[in-house]
Request: fold
Amino acid sequence: MNADQILALPVPWVEGGQENPSDVVISSRVRLARNLSRFPFVNRATPEEKAAVLEAVRQAIQHEPLFRECAWCRIGEMDPVSKGILVERRLMSPDFLQGSQERVLVLDSRGIVSVMVNEEDHLRIQVLLGRMALCEALRIASAIDRALYCLDFAFDPEFGFLTSCPTNVGTGLRASAMLHLPALRMSGAMPEIIAQSGRLGLVVRGAYGEGTTSAGALYQVSNQVTLGLTPEELTEKVEAVGSRLVEQEARARSALLNGPHELEDRIWRAWGTLLYARRLGLAEAMECLSLLRMAQEAGMKGPFEKLAWGPLFLAVQPAHVQARQGRLLTEAETDTARAELVRDALGCLR
Amino acid sequence: MLCERCGKKNAEVHIRQTIQGAVSEHHLCRDCARELTSGWKPGSDFLEFSIGSFLENLCKTLGPELREQGKAAQAVPSCPRCGLDFERFRKTGRFGCADCYQAFREWIRPLFTRIHGSETYRGPVPGPGAVKSVDDELERLKMQLKDAVSEERYELAAALRDRIRILEGRLRDER
Reply:
């Protein structure tokens, strides 16, 4: 698969946000880690064994209706821009980039399901949906999981599904929701929220950049423990905490918007930056877009009302900028090209 | 979740560390995090700490069998299939194959309790493909149940009993 073919795939988690722009929850993701019992885990497997895993997976999905329309991407044979786009669309992990020949990404044509073969575990089954849809994502992931039981997954009655790292053992499940929390961040509430989530066996962290100051105010809430609770219980827990954060964000926004005009000033400054900047860094672009999304959701009047946040959010990511230019760029060139494409997109809205 | 270093306080500091492409995650309480980062200087490894040191600590504090016998951690049997020894597992924090779990079973239960607050799986059981023979599996579960009861590990015993009932039910349906 080349960059153009990947760019042509739908990105439901971004488009989902467009249909209902008032969603604080951008996307929901469920990931299952699985290993084939008859092969050593990836970190101890020879290239031949990893190739055998790949072949077993290929045979298993060949006649499986759930994988009828899937692309088979050999990571080692892909160019850096194509790989970057897949990471930016969150269809594979950044760690998967350093690909050996035996690493393959199986992608469905709807842009929802991706399966990484020979990542840290033999299989990483991932389902990615727009908005808060963790239960639906789990339902899809579980159906794929069951369809692949013929691969004879490593399983122990006491410990559950066996994984390379002890932090994934049991359900092998990581359920995560990506939330846009600009008001909670501005009000300084994030450090406390991050600290509290640990007590619940959950993790809240920056989705882009770590810690309390994530670029674009995007945060990820996910389960930390994978053993002792069922997949449904884990997913519900993440969803419950996600919903609480949505409520808190709404309250924080209302307080900010009813306050002095400082926020309004910041929003218009963001608009000005995006419209006139000649060089635009990724973090700055994401910050400005975050403010404009908040303005849209608050129903503020202005040219940003018609802004399609999702597509522009993807377009400013480095590999997407480079794909548009059709070549690898230096950081400075990327910043210039990013400013140009944002000016074009916003210019049409004026 | 408890701090993976002291195992006493809640983990409130979450660290993702990448060294030469290898990513590891650590979950510490504020005190342990402060202690570990006090000597940190820009440019040095973020933390001179790995899951290995945690496991090492774990073996010291939670390996009564080992201590009583006065044996070192090397006394833990190596995995008969992939050859991974416990020492290496402690250093890398990664198992080598499915059989490592069987080989290190006694030593990894406390580790799971610290990471997950539990050592017993609850969730779907893969179909017949994963269980070679239901009879064999039943036998193995019954033995584990006997051990669990004698060790007064009732949470595990209850989970095992549930699973035995499911398998027995399945067998009855099949025959």
Summary: The first strand of chain B starts at residue 13 and ends at 19. The beta strands of chain B are 13-19, 22-28. Chain B touches chain A through 50 residues (CB under 8 Å). Chain B has eight helices and two strands.
